[in-house]
């Protein structure tokens, strides 16, 4: 099991909410300080193309056409938190009360291309609405999330909204995860390692607990090495890398292992590499990812979990 980390409670968390913040942090990270985030916000971000039809590895399974597939994975697999929009939580949450939810408070479709208009993902609801849902429903909602597009002409609005969201989350004893992507007409290379590092540094200045960024790329350089810059730039904000489009299990798990053990990242944010699989396979992949993220499994051992030849109860990590 990965070494546990002391919970560093930000000073903008009120005294009466510090225990709740610490409990939410422990729940999200299984007491390890690392985050396995199951990203289920693509119903808006990518519309239905991620759930029906063909994709990189072939045909998307029929399971994925049903939105409840996401919740089944979240309940049966070992995750830290399931990120999705508030309507999804409100519609399905009563049947999946044992899941930790992160409510994503802004989202946009991919229909408007950046050569037409710089990206802007406006706030849908405020943190107070999530706090009311949590109180009224009794659901486990330890965190909220928000996306910023650095370099967009609408960057100032998103930065202001994100700052308020992080502060409001802390006032309620909840954690925040920021998705930060350099994107817009002014951004030539969205995966430039210095820009990615700049994004994690912005997350720190906003006070976010975690930041999700794309894995950097630079010609002739190893991504796991150049990603170190982003981890250092983030300071006490914990960095996770986006999972990206679906790839084969070994390649994905090796990349994840390198992100944690070479780059120094603190976890992962995985969507398509989970839900674009039949339920049984998705759950095994989920557990394999958590084996590396939460329990420091080497890649070969995690592959055994994915293949089903090694079956452990990761719920003991809670």
Order the strands across the largest sheet as they lie in space: 1-4-5-6-7-8-9-10
- Class in CATH? Alpha Beta
Annotated CATH homologous superfamily: Aldolase class I
Task: Write down the domain tally.
Answer: 1
Give, in order, the helices and strands: HEHEEHEHEHEHEHEHHEHEHHH
Low-pLDDT runs of 5+ residues are: none
Task: Name the CATH architecture.
Answer: Alpha-Beta Barrel
CATH topology: TIM Barrel
End-to-end distance? 11 Å
* Shape, principal axes of CA atoms: globular
**Helicity, as a percent range:** 40-55%
Radius of gyration from the alpha-carbon trace, in angstroms? 18 Å
Sheet-strand content, in percent, reads 15-25%
Judged by helices, strands and strand pairing, the structural class is alpha/beta
Largest sheet, in brief, is: 8 strands, parallel, barrel
Count the E strands. Answer: 10
Give an account of the 3D structure.
The protein is of the alpha/beta class and 318 residues long. The protein has a single domain, classed as Aldolase class I (TIM Barrel, Alpha-Beta Barrel). Helices cover 41% and strands 16% of the residues. The protein has helices spanning 18-29, 42-45, 68-76, 86-92, 127-137, 155-171, 193-206, 223-226, 228-233, 249-263, 272-275, 279-295, 299-307, and strands spanning 35-39, 54-55, 58-59, 81-85, 100-104, 140-150, 175-182, 210-213, 238-242, 267-270. An eight-stranded parallel β-barrel has the order 1-4-5-6-7-8-9-10, surrounded by seven helices. It has a two-stranded antiparallel sheet with strand order 2-3. Strand 9 (238-242), helix 10 and strand 10 form a beta-alpha-beta unit. The chain is globular, with a radius of gyration of 18 Å. The N and C termini lie close together (11 Å). The model has no long low-confidence stretch (mean pLDDT 94).
